[in-house]
User: Fold these one by one.
Assistant:
Number 1:
Amino acid sequence: MSSKIINSKSSSEGELNGDLERISAQSANCDTLARQLRELPAFRGLLRAVEARFYCDLPMPNPVLDLGCGDGHFASVALPQGIEIGLDPWWGPLQEADTRHYYGLLTHAVGAQMPFSRNTFGTVVSNSVLEHIPEVDPVIHEVARVLRPGGRFYFCVPGPNFRTFLSVARALDAVGLSGAAEAYRCLFDRISRHYTYDDVPHWAARLSRAGLHLERSWAYFSKGALTALEWGHPLGLPSLFAKKLTGRWLIAPTRWNLALTEALLRHYYEEPLPDEGAYLFFVACKPDASL
């Protein structure tokens, strides 16, 4: 599948709609843990592998928009079909996404001002994106505008438990250093670039204001899994250096080199959904007025 990058300020609606008609579907493997660990830092690979499982059984009516597609890695590995359009405000990741040849069209634009007409998409996916946007309500309203009646909106975000589950902060709280614990949480917010930790009722209200209906949601990523992700940040610094030097997160992504990592993390990948999780996954829809 070939793709091209369109600047939203110079693209035409006719060109976008023409590209929508020329895209074919592809499939993905549900158990992506091994591949994620070969291509991403371990903490990120674990999280993305857990999230990828959720999409395997979700209906994905075409055309599909990947809102905040980034470098395209997640969609190319996890989603059960090819993606017609990827949208992101950053040129660098879009250029990397273009090399994957997974999207029919890549669009340089912000989520609050999408260059698409009303009722264009059957599905909008936004995987671990909305928490990075300071003003998220305008983006949700744009999603509602570009979704067709009956269309689905799938997204996931960290929930309120993300901050409370952080192991270092919990340890500081346990010894009475609540100020230091909060400072650590704020530091992790900055590192993660998180602005939003809303709970399910807040997201349901936000969706409703935009004209969308929350069908269901679930929590995922246990306290132990988040601890693995938390400590993976400093342990993953060599991967950051490797990415800057070579363009790849891992220099030697061989099976023997990753066997211990996969063995340690697979427990968290295979754990059942917890009653309380650090992250929340949402399935929303745009009501069909004809029903």
Number 2:
Amino acid sequence: MALSKIDSDGIVSGGITADSLNIGQIGGRRNLIINGDMAISQRNTSFTNPLNQYTLDRWISQLDTTSARSTVTQESSGGPSGFRNFLRVTVTTADATLDSSDLQNIKQIIEGYNMRHTDQGTSDAETLTCSFWVRSSVTGTYSATLYLNSTGTQYAYPAEYTINSANTWEYKTVTFSPQTTSASWVSSGYTNGEYAQLRFGLMIGSGQGGTADTWNASNKFGASGQTNLFATNGATWDLTGVQLEVGSVATPFEHRSFGEEMELCRRYYFRLINAANEVYGQGFNYGAYVRTAIHPQTTEFRTLPSLEYVGPTTFYRKGTNATNNVNTTGNPWEIVASNKNTIFMQSTISDTSEDGVAGSLYLTGSGCHVSFNAEL
């Protein structure tokens, strides 16, 4: 693509090209993946035996087996050039003989609103390309799978890639051809719900694998016969720089600012860590309830979040306090409504004698945290 330039007399001439600027594809945000550089990890930096749970922000470890086990960690040094962080899977219990239902994959679920410009399911469907940096102690053929799921119609495209050298960062690209056979996705899939998953298969039983490099009309987690990382105890597999974009050619990784990436993550999950009796809500007594409002972020949550917490919370009113241990049975603090910037919580504490009295909601113990979860 050639760009025009205008001199001081207003005369337009050519000569500036995308290639000469070395900026890759021009225009708009390209990467459909959030936290592809593995820089955000609000929950923790180490996860032991994560069977089917979020680890680093937006990344799920899905492990479905009776015997194999692993850890997932966020690493902060030793990544490829341009990347400080990466996700590491370490095999802690090996499983060399797989049952048909065994699987391990690292995946990200993609919201429908973020996929709508790809036109999947129509004759205008776009080719998608995934690029990433990967390193493993076990060489062989692995797969990255694009899974599309809407209104009960499932398609999976396992694309193979090869790790050639052990313990060496390698840059890989795979391409997913357009999916043109489910137009219902256009009307029902482009919402705030799940639309797609990008999956990296590490252990794929015979019943979980599909035909490589084509669309399978079913739910598949990787390519049949791919390398089993979990055959080797202590094996490691590292991932960073993940980009999924429209087009048949991978462009340079889209490095967004840390703050922008954090806001993208907070649409789905936000954790407030306790720090010296930190306030996380302002409110007032109302009849038999304490109602409080919080402004945790400027980004609108994907949906009404759930409230998760560890440690005691105290509601301070008029310079005194009424302690309510939020770990008690029944979870007395709950989210009842939210809009773009405000979450409304209430507790069923009976305190009618001070109806209308204002107060603040605090975290009050070492290691406390409050989380708002709107994950897919």
Number 3:
Amino acid sequence: MKNLTLDETKKKLEKVGLKFTAGNLSYLLEEAVREDMNLHEFLDSILTREIERKEEERISMYLKLSSLPPGKTLENFDFSFQPSISRKKIETLATCEYIKRCENIIFLGPPGVGKTHLAAALGIRAIQCGYRVLFKRLDDLMYMLKEDENSPITRRRRRRYYRSSLVIIDEVGFQPLSAKEANLFFHFISTLYEKSSIIITTNKSFSEWSKVFAGDEVITVAILDRLLHHSHVINIKGRSWRLKEMEEAIQFAVDPEKDSHTKPSEAIFSSKEGFSSS
């Protein structure tokens, strides 16, 4: 049997796609000797690390393609600040069983209560569970749909908003849609119906949705019919995170016991970038 070199082995590992093992072969061999691994244990060790590395790369790529806002996870969501939210319900949804059943989630509530945070956090969990996810604000989604309106259907089917297992549509209700846009949105929802899951965040109650969709009651009912058929509706009633942070900033600026070096005149109220009366 000819003498093998590490370089030759590394090249073979790279050819079969074991890049992590190829790049760390010397260390892995030294570890095997140090830990007194048998051949089976060594093989299992390198395969486990390859799988873990490939999974990390997959998650990183899916997160990049998803357009999800960074830093919004379930771990850093303060459930104590929004007691109207059932933590158990959210944790159950985080198992992603609803995606297997092509069910939808609708977060209702005023601005700033955590709707987007929870939607994005569930999107991250979905990626971790192996699903493709796309996050878009409604106005960005409508721009894409209008751009693709006259494209061949085969091309449209290849777009990520049709190929994703979960589509998150943020900020439904902030700006009303035109009649044409409402019709495009209806066809979009109809295409995804019972094929993919949809998460929607909205500051409008369902009774106000016709105002969002160009005042068209027929299209509004048709959209709601498809969204609510298999759905989880979560109504958040609470204070705004942003107002809470603003109040804390003001309190910190004016409370000498918290920081004796901070004066109100030096903080928010005198800043050109601070609050104004307009």
